[in-house]
Design brief:
Elements: E1 8-13, H1 20-29, E2 33-37, H2 43-60, E3 65-69, E4 84-86, E5 92-96, E6 106-108, H3 112-117, E7 123-126, E8 131-138, E9 142-149, E10 152-154, E11 159-160, H4 173-185, E12 189-192, H5 198-208, E13 213-218, H6 221-224, H7 227-233, E14 236-240, H8 241-247, H9 253-267, E15 271-274, H10 289-301, E16 305-308, H11 310-313, H12 318-333, H13 336-344, H14 353-367, E17 372-376, H15 381-388, E18 395-399, H16 402-407, E19 414-418, H17 427-439, E20 448-454, E21 463-470
Parallel strand pairs: 1-2, 1-16, 2-3, 3-12, 5-6, 12-13, 13-14, 14-15, 15-16, 17-18, 17-20, 18-19
Antiparallel strand pairs: 4-10, 5-9, 7-8, 7-11, 8-9, 20-21
Helix pairs in contact: 1-12, 5-7, 7-9, 10-12
């Protein structure tokens, strides 16, 4: 617990980061949450990584969250006779249901539901938008198009149909099997991909049935039209700008990012900003200046966490990518402009006594120059309320539940410690919190802290006490 950085880091595990030595190095470099990408690998591969993480968690004596990211209904084209083709602007091209390998004139589109919603004049983007086509003719089992921008196109590349709600199930059979496997492993978060409607989220929630927290990934424009309902149904949100940035104009991505981060923060739930954050570090030892600025922008926006994907999964410099991301986050949080931005916007807390207490704790901590804020919580709700305020000092969360401590590893500023429950007398818990603050290096003797809790202890949602105490 030596990192006093408030913004958390999510790192994806893969071939470059699958052994215990590297995973430990990543933890020591600043990772708070590990992402297991179920688009790749077998369940047994993920089990092996999870067991390593849990062993290191015990060794390093700090909770670590594990996020299982589902593949979702990823749309892909078929294959080519030669493995790839090169398409040029202005040429005609055909998408059809024929499973035979394609060539320079056609390719299999193994998704009848996509063909059913394509319209003349509509667009298809392939391989993250590197190839763009406009539909010129539509048939029952085919669509003809003209290439608007060409490039090399290889087997099974992804496709996007911007501006169109595609009638595909939110959870594929693979997703359902993977969710069952992930829950059996004991992951803390399940990430649902390609969410389009509130009904998609309800289906995932029913399947998970409280055995893990649900993170919804915003990567389809259709989700933006239901964003308030989707946020309300989820436990957290990931803004996955890769696929989203293909389907909406690039000039819209920054404003969408700011709007979604603000909405999720206002809800009191964690928000991850993801995709291509330090992408050049897959092969380079230093990020570009634009990438450093991109990470900083997510921090200035108030994100709970920023995420590394291929940088740590398959990159040449996984540990260095984490170190640099941590440095960017910490330096941004030290900036006076950042403090001003967090101060200007505080979520509405009228009408809820628990919210009133945590808001008061934020301002009291500022006034008495407290070194940290302590929350006792059973469900995690008190810590989430405090994180929503984006305090400039760490939030020491004391909870009797290991699952709660792990889940809160994703939330802004929270350092969770598993500890026993206390009785309603407030003197003992204050002394206990002071001892843990010393042990974790979050405070020194003589410093002050602000503490919130609910009396009687152990009743979720009853935060009603605020106390100022000294570290003795």
């Amino acid at each position: 617990m030596t990192h006093h950085r408030q913004t958390k880091i999510v790192a994806t595990l893969g071939p470059a980061s699958s052994d215990k030595a590297m995973i430990k190095t990543l933890l020591e470099a600043g990772v708070n949450v590990f992402r297991l990408n179920f688009s790749h690998g077998k369940p047994e591969d993920h089990v092996a990584k999870l067991e390593i993480i849990r062993a290191l968690e015990a060794e390093l004596k700090r909770p670590v969250a594990i996020l299982a990211d589902m593949q979702g209904p990823k749309l892909r084209i078929g294959t080519f006779k030669e493995g790839s083709v090169t398409l040029s602007e202005g040429q005609n091209f055909r998408f059809d249901l024929d499973p035979a390998p394609g060539d320079e004139t056609r390719v299999n589109l193994p998704h009848p539901e996509v063909l059913s919603v394509l319209e003349e004049g509509g667009r298809i983007f392939l391989d993250d938008g590197k190839v763009r086509a406009k539909i010129t003719k539509k048939g029952k089992d085919f669509a003809e198009a003209v290439i608007l921008s060409g490039a090399k196109l290889s087997d099974k590349k992804g496709l996007n149909v911007p501006g169109t709600l595609i009638p595909i199930p939110a959870l594929t059979d693979k997703d359902k099997a993977d969710i069952a496997a992930a829950l059996e492993m004991g992951v803390d978060w399940i990430a649902q991909s390609f969410v389009q409607t509130p009904e998609d989220v309800k289906e995932a929630r029913a399947l998970i049935n409280g055995r893990a927290s649900l993170l919804v990934k915003i990567e389809k424009p259709a989700a933006l039209g239901h964003i308030d309902e989707i946020i309300a149904l989820a436990d957290g949100v990931m803004l996955a700008r890769g696929d989203l940035g293909v389907e909406i104009p690039p000039e819209d991505v920054p404003s969408v990012q700011k709007r979604i981060v603000r909405k999720v923060r206002e809800s009191g739930k964690p928000i991850i900003v993801a995709t291509q954050m330090l992408e050049s570090m897959i092969t380079n030892a230093r990020p570009t200046r634009a990438e450093a600025s991109d990470v900083a922008t997510a921090v200035y926006d108030g994100a709970d966490a920023v995420m590394l994907s291929a940088e740590t999964a398959t990159g040449d410099y996984p540990a260095r990518a984490v170190e640099i991301m941590a440095r960017i986050c910490l330096r941004t949080e030290e900036d006076e402009t950042y403090h001003d931005m967090m101060e200007v916007y505080h979520p509405e807390t009228l009408g809820d006594p628990s919210d009133a207490i945590t808001t008061a704790a934020y301002y009291v901590a500022e006034d008495v120059e407290a070194s940290l804020i302590v929350t006792y919580t059973v469900s995690g709700s008190t810590a989430l309320r405090m994180a929503r305020q984006r305090p400039h000092v760490p939030i020491l969360c004391l909870t009797p539940h290991e699952s709660v401590a792990r889940r809160l590893s994703l939330s802004y500023g929270v350092r969770a410690v598993v500890t026993e429950e206390h009785e309603s007398d407030f003197t003992g818990p204050a002394h206990h919190a002071a001892q843990i603050a010393l042990q974790t290096g979050l405070a020194e003797k003589g410093q002050r802290f602000v503490m919130t809790a609910g009396v009687p202890f152990g009743e979720p949602g009853s935060t009603n006490i605020l106390r100022i105490a000294d570290v003795e």
